[in-house]
Amino acid sequence: MLDLPRFTAAAVQAAPAYLDAAKTVAKATDLIAEAAGHGAALVAFPEAFVPGYPYWNWTMNPVAGSPWFERLYRSAVDVPGPEVEALRAAARRHGVTVVIGVNERGAHSMGVLYNTMLTISSSGELLGVHRKLVPTWAEKLTWTGGDGSSLRVHDTELGRLGVLACGENTNTLARFALLAQGEQVHVAAYIALPVAPEDYDMADAIAIRTAAHAFEGKVFSVVSTSVVSPEIVDAVAGDDAAVRTQLARPRNALSGIFGPDGRPVVEPLVDDEGIVYAEIDLARCIQPKQMHDIIGHYNRFDVFSLHLDATPRTPLVVTGRDAELPAPAGEPAEPEPRS
Amino acid sequence: MLDLPRFTAAAVQAAPAYLDAAKTVAKATDLIAEAAGHGAALVAFPEAFVPGYPYWNWTMNPVAGSPWFERLYRSAVDVPGPEVEALRAAARRHGVTVVIGVNERGAHSMGVLYNTMLTISSSGELLGVHRKLVPTWAEKLTWTGGDGSSLRVHDTELGRLGVLACGENTNTLARFALLAQGEQVHVAAYIALPVAPEDYDMADAIAIRTAAHAFEGKVFSVVSTSVVSPEIVDAVAGDDAAVRTQLARPRNALSGIFGPDGRPVVEPLVDDEGIVYAEIDLARCIQPKQMHDIIGHYNRFDVFSLHLDATPRTPLVVTGRDAELPAPAGEPAEPEPRS
Amino acid sequence: MLDLPRFTAAAVQAAPAYLDAAKTVAKATDLIAEAAGHGAALVAFPEAFVPGYPYWNWTMNPVAGSPWFERLYRSAVDVPGPEVEALRAAARRHGVTVVIGVNERGAHSMGVLYNTMLTISSSGELLGVHRKLVPTWAEKLTWTGGDGSSLRVHDTELGRLGVLACGENTNTLARFALLAQGEQVHVAAYIALPVAPEDYDMADAIAIRTAAHAFEGKVFSVVSTSVVSPEIVDAVAGDDAAVRTQLARPRNALSGIFGPDGRPVVEPLVDDEGIVYAEIDLARCIQPKQMHDIIGHYNRFDVFSLHLDATPRTPLVVTGRDAELPAPAGEPAEPEPRS
Amino acid sequence: MLDLPRFTAAAVQAAPAYLDAAKTVAKATDLIAEAAGHGAALVAFPEAFVPGYPYWNWTMNPVAGSPWFERLYRSAVDVPGPEVEALRAAARRHGVTVVIGVNERGAHSMGVLYNTMLTISSSGELLGVHRKLVPTWAEKLTWTGGDGSSLRVHDTELGRLGVLACGENTNTLARFALLAQGEQVHVAAYIALPVAPEDYDMADAIAIRTAAHAFEGKVFSVVSTSVVSPEIVDAVAGDDAAVRTQLARPRNALSGIFGPDGRPVVEPLVDDEGIVYAEIDLARCIQPKQMHDIIGHYNRFDVFSLHLDATPRTPLVVTGRDAELPAPAGEPAEPEPRS
Amino acid sequence: MLDLPRFTAAAVQAAPAYLDAAKTVAKATDLIAEAAGHGAALVAFPEAFVPGYPYWNWTMNPVAGSPWFERLYRSAVDVPGPEVEALRAAARRHGVTVVIGVNERGAHSMGVLYNTMLTISSSGELLGVHRKLVPTWAEKLTWTGGDGSSLRVHDTELGRLGVLACGENTNTLARFALLAQGEQVHVAAYIALPVAPEDYDMADAIAIRTAAHAFEGKVFSVVSTSVVSPEIVDAVAGDDAAVRTQLARPRNALSGIFGPDGRPVVEPLVDDEGIVYAEIDLARCIQPKQMHDIIGHYNRFDVFSLHLDATPRTPLVVTGRDAELPAPAGEPAEPEPRS
Amino acid sequence: MLDLPRFTAAAVQAAPAYLDAAKTVAKATDLIAEAAGHGAALVAFPEAFVPGYPYWNWTMNPVAGSPWFERLYRSAVDVPGPEVEALRAAARRHGVTVVIGVNERGAHSMGVLYNTMLTISSSGELLGVHRKLVPTWAEKLTWTGGDGSSLRVHDTELGRLGVLACGENTNTLARFALLAQGEQVHVAAYIALPVAPEDYDMADAIAIRTAAHAFEGKVFSVVSTSVVSPEIVDAVAGDDAAVRTQLARPRNALSGIFGPDGRPVVEPLVDDEGIVYAEIDLARCIQPKQMHDIIGHYNRFDVFSLHLDATPRTPLVVTGRDAELPAPAGEPAEPEPRS
């Protein structure tokens, strides 16, 4: 008889040590320890958590923001690199699966920063390095988009685990590309966004998308969002009252865990720092699949055929018998084994 | 300067004259008149409205339900046919665009019933005949699935109009196939479903999907659901108290209009008969597209490529110089011109 | 509410006036009158009934049979021609639909005889001229195969009517080509075949195929077979005792009417002359379609696609502005209007 | 001179150890041993034999049947997996070719169960994994349809071997798709169906189809059907007298071996458990082909052209230079080599 | 019972009154009378009989031959015109079908002469005006080729009658274009050709082609060839001994009647003037068709499809609502009725 | 300067080792050696040489002939297969081009035998596998017709080489289809036919057709016919005196080589076993083309357009991404590259 995973998930809602990668990683390892202490087997962190989100794109013009780009570039992390090593060690030490967002420095160009989600197994293996495909609106001033090679679901002892960053959860096709790989547990990582247009309620916008993905796929969805700390406000707004007001707007963050019926398993956390815990029992996904199984009997793959081009896109493709040039693009130096 | 449509939409929540196509069409024309009287330019009706939904599939075993199949087959409508003519005349008379669900009799086989959504222009033209791709769970006992040829968005004076039936709104790929054609106004037609498993809250399940489609696509979404009338309860349950209880379960229907931020424009109507009216102003869709435009700058068509096979699937493909054999499958007699 | 035809069908089991077209047509019109007097609305005659079947192909070698070919060619019928006119008049006079097999003389070549099934409407219209696609074994010595242009189901007041000749009922694809056009009443015309190999029981072979077509398609199947009369024995066998014995072999013919469950509606008639009557009620076909509807929900036209090339195959294709050359092939002069 | 296979076939009529895959496989291996002891070279088992047929779909409504779905899902088998290994070992050990039906768990989705026929060579190779294309009527509540990729005839030392599950034997086109590949020995696997509508005689319905396929194709057809054991009655009906009566209806199963003339080689077995043995001598198929060879001289491939789309239908098609994402759909992990 | 024509055919081997149309027509009417007196129902004359063949093309260079062109142009006939009227009167008077070759003056241009075969019915109707498609070798210096509009078989009381001129009988496709129209009696008209290259035996070349057409089509073939009279030698060669020798070469002409087995019915006539008579019994064509019927059972019109473009080719095609310009090309003024 | 092939051709007139493929191939290889020893570069064998012609179709009725069909099926050859390998080896060893007729067993059906002409290059390559399109009269009882895919002319060092089997040389369109591909050397393979109707002189019938093809196309034509050996008479006639007399009829075979003027290059051989040798000098074909070039200046492709449908006709057309089903029809395993 089939046995399905059942475990506790932790959705972290927290602020980084702004633009300080080492300190943020230290805070993350503490939070991993705390969550593991509460029995969590999966700990999800926000998008761009290490070392924080480039709010200046939303509050000043691009030329004024230019020195901030350099500051972020200098404080970003290499993959692999010491920050990643520290996170892998924490995961291994506590035996938990960790998903966390980082600003990844492009190895091949000083203009390249990626908004990258790392997935680390409970034995400390770096399972996934997913670079956000399209930065959202003002984020285009900072980040370079990734390619299709990282849209992968990972087979873990907690089930088949997939990750998308922020606005990617709006992208119907990106979401389906994960569901189609048999995703069972989805992690959606967001940042607090008090700076969006006024009628944009970030908490609602997160909840709608999390519910939809869970309902459509009959999966559990863990959502983790960052928090705008006073430190961030000081750093970004300084004395500018208008920006301070803007950054103080409520309902800018929501974290929690949603079930396969599209409803939250426990009450989500809005705006405040904290960890939301809930039980994930994959057996709860079987019976709802009878109603809709959009990767099975409830779809029509004779009618719809979604192609995912997983080609890694590098600035140069070297071919030929003796193509031993140094790797031209910022491929992770330790390519993860594809299972 | 671009002028974008702005108009009143009406979402009808009503019960049919059960298994009586002529009477149901008469009721529908009355409701069209009423909605037009309130200024509506678009009137959306529930799925399978003419002449009603096969509840017996959920309340009895298939063999017991077999005579009910014949009853529905005999009372279903032909497309084209007198019922469709009456609906087209009503649309033309009142100058409103109408979307309505019918049980369509397959012209070529006595085993074929389609769950079909008709789209009728304000001049009475039959714009679309969309046959639901996959019947949902117990519905598979009654309906034959359609093919990809009808997944089309229609250019109307109200904007680009798309329609999906019930559980199709769960299908990420079907939804994207409409959005990708530039859909601006979506109609989602449902039936009241008190008979689903106990933990399935149909009102919630409708709201989650309507919100998600509107938010992902930055479109307006009009949702129309049928009602379980006492007449239906008597017909289907008879004296069976358990079935009567089952059919009386609340939160089985929700109708309303949702905006491009994923939130309802006006309060939705739950369970009761009535018409929900709201203003649709397509200009409201422009600015949110800056944040996410999943059919534009916010997608990656180098990475994702969704193929829609629009081949009409007929039991026989006739070729040859004088291939004038009678059309083997029940293709709509008035195919709309492909723009 | 849908009304479906309900009527009496007559399956004629009879011998022709051998190699005398005029006399055989006179016998046929008498039988039409008799069946109409018993209330029949559909009268089915055997294959090659006018003026009989070329048994010599089975009892002598081809060269010895050669003068018999000339004899059959001279006594065959033209379509149109006086024999067809007489049959049309009888159908019109009695208001019955008639299906009958004839030896059709090819208008363009003295080497061409077709094994042709005529379908005549109750108003005397020549609905169909179907030329058997492949003559069976020894029949190849006499008949030329037809083309795909005549594989048509006819819309009549008795339902959608299709016809196949003898061994064509073994051809899975020919059978499906009719079912796919919505066939509801099938006529299978056979000849008595005492001359087949010893282990070939013609009555069984007819029953197996009739049952299968009715069961697969959920249709009614009317089967009509000819009889080997003493006159035929004298003509073909003369004093040859071995051939006389061969022609006297029992279980060489079966006529009757089978229902959509694959079972005979009334007891079939074996070997003897007579008319089998049974009621055909098309409403009986609806419920069985829920189990299997191979032209609807129970097939997969994304997987299987049967193409029928309906090109008329003529020895010469004449084109050009004034292409009024005499019709090169023996097309029926009164082509039925293609609806 | 050509030598054609001649061997003993065994058609098993038996009940599974209901919903217990391991015990059912043990019973199957015992039956393989028994049949091999009687000289059988081919052993055919019923459809869905491991671990049994979902009768609840026919005896209760879908929602009530929902927990049964989960129970079947949990007790189904993976392909490959330990149950398949055990069957392969038994085939290899006894040197017999085995065809057996299983409930296959979809690797990629918890809503996917396939009704799968496994073909295992006498050396233990897994030759074929055929997923039933369309579940029949109430079965649609449980099984997902397969695609065209598995409609294959296998070259074995017993001749060219093809398999269809239950109602697929009604599908004219599915049958022809096997015949067209040169099928010589057909296995038709059924389940006991006492629960069909009253006028549906399952034993007759099996015999008609088996006879037709054998006669049309001039092939041998081995038909194997399951039995409703008291254990199954207890499990499904419990104390419900009506359901107990329903399940006790006679003439619900038939197993046997039919020859190329469409007649059974030995008396078929109706309802009771047992093994039917008969000799299959492929040389018997040559002479009947002179009368009708529907894949040769007796068809018209200029007129009829059957296309089989063998595309595997997966939820996601991954492309690209390093497209090593995890296989998105539950393809068999050990794909048989395509010759 | 079918009755087939049986009659006497006459193949005329004769010389014209060289370059004198009126006298040649007078000679022809005398020969018609003579043949009719011998019971002939069909009288075939040579190619270009009225008023003779342009031998100068073969015996002098083109510039030297130029005045001869004018001479022929002036002595050619108009169709219709007095010479044709005289021939029609003779046919009507004697009740015989006549086929005769003429030099036809192009009505629209003084550079146009056609090598034209006239077919005149026994009632004097001008059935066919066939212009040789391609003049042969040196003939290209004189004649303009015709178009496909005249490649017609005529329904006469003698059977279906076709005609080709000289080298057209070498053209496989031209021959088949007539056979395909059901040709039963073929007329091949030639001229005496002593002027061909030395190894070209004209009598053999005629016999080979006549035999082949008769054998391939199982038709009767009537071949008629002209004779080189002393008058022609004097006119063309004058005192040139070499040319006189050339024109005196034997085996330059052959006339006769061949049967459907490809063999002459009576001994052909070589070189001398005279009339060959033979009986044509179309019933003799039936039995050989069993062996080969290349327009029926012995061809494959799914594989071969011969298209004949019968468009009349005129120097100007006038279109438009009021296209009442004078007929631009030399169409016969009395277009024959197309039956 | 163009150099045209000039070589010796050998037309073999011989009997097979009846119904023994291995022995017949051994005899063929001996004859190849003998012909090569006489300087032949092209060796043509009769139709159906391996392992002989089914005379029983002409001497007994079809049912009596049925066991003979099985006997021929069992002794026929597979293409490719050991017999073909032996022939290829002999061609390669002696450096001669070989054309030979075989009974080819259809790989996909036990009812399929093809009358196949193999063309083997002097390097042993299997250039062509041409299956006779329409079996002639009584042959229809044995052979299945081929399709248009094999009507190909092969470019060899001896010129462009085409092949037709027996009655195909009667088919105007088949002949033109080869000429149109630039055929220069034609091989016509026949069988001795003493069994045709009495007035059918096979030697004449062969000569007429060979002459016609050579004359029309200005090609060389090599004709090879089989011989009725005493062994064949004993096998087919046994003690039946009438059949023995029939098989002894003279003028049943003719072999030889014909030139582009339609006349034999050397005296043909009638009835007796032997090899006819003659020189083929393709340069002799140039000058006659000035008179008639029916694939060039002497045809009118604006008027005539012959279409050849070269589609291979298979019982099943498999499509799809991984359409690696076993080839359904017995396509030759070594398809020649299409130049």
TrEMBL record, chains A, B, C, D, E, F:
Active site per the UniProt annotation: E47
Alphabetical list of InterPro entries matching this protein: C-N_Hydrolase (IPR003010), C-N_Hydrolase_sf (IPR036526), Nitrilase/CN_hydratase_CS (IPR000132), Nitrilases_CHs (IPR044149)
Gene3D superfamilies: Carbon-nitrogen hydrolase
Domain CN hydrolase residue range list: 7-282
Gene Ontology terms, MF aspect: nitrilase activity
SUPFAM superfamilies in the record: Carbon-nitrogen hydrolase
Similarity comment: family membership: Belongs to the carbon-nitrogen hydrolase superfamily. Nitrilase family.
Protein's name in the database: Nitrilase
The species this protein was found in: Pseudonocardia asaccharolytica DSM 44247 = NBRC 16224
